[in-house]
Amino acid sequence: MADPERVTVTASVFAIITAAIQSTNALKETVQRFKQRNKTLGRLQNGLEDLSRTLFILRQMVDTDASVLALLQGPIEQCSRLCREFEDSMKAFDTRSKTGFQDWAGMKFMAGDIDEFIDTLAGYKSTISIGLCTITIS
Questions:
Q1: Residue 53 is assigned to a structural domain of this protein
Q2: Does the global pTM surpass 0.90?
Q3: Which domain holds residue 109?
Q4: 129 assigned to some structural domain
Q5: Is 85 a member of any domain?
């Protein structure tokens, strides 16, 4: 019989990973509309695609090592939250307005810029990838 605590952790982490995939993909779709206008957003788009693939692979392995997955819960939740917030910031500007986009492209996001956001996402992706490698090796 399965350990009830492990089942609870697994179900919780599965839900968190699924939410992170959804928020990453939603941001990816929003960035897609703008990426031709800005090289930095093209880099962001690439980073989001990598993150989405990593999360998808992790979700497929959710039944393997509950202890490692539990450790990844925080970074996955933070990553999901950041993607939602950044998407909300992008949606605040009219996609048809070039002026609105230029205002957005020049703005600061969460006391940093778009490059810092890309670096932050890359850090979360690295943490998640290390956890994924740990699960794979186990």
A1: yes
A2: no
A3: 4-89+104-137
A4: yes
A5: yes
Instruction: Give every CB contact of residue 31 below 8 A, 6+ residues apart in sequence.
Output: 41, 44, 45, 48, 90
Residue 104: CB atoms within 10 Å: 21
Within a domain: 82: yes
Write down the residue that tokens 């740990």 correspond to: 134
Please name the residue that has the structure tokens 């990844």: 72
pLDDT digits (tens, 9 = 90+) for 38-66: 778 888 999 999 999 999 999 888 777 67
Write the DSSP string, the chain. ---HHHHHHHHHHHHHHHHHHHHHHHHHHHHHHHGGG-HHHHHHHHHHHHHHHHHHHHHHTTTS-HHHHHHHHHHHHHHHHHHHHHHHHHHTS-TT-HHHHHHHHHS-BTTB-HHHHHHHHHHHHHHHHHHHHHHHH-
Q: Determine contact, residues 70/17, Cβ cutoff 8 Å.
A: no
Q: How many domains does the chain have?
A: 1
Report the pLDDT value the prediction gives residue 111, as an integer from 0 to 100: 44
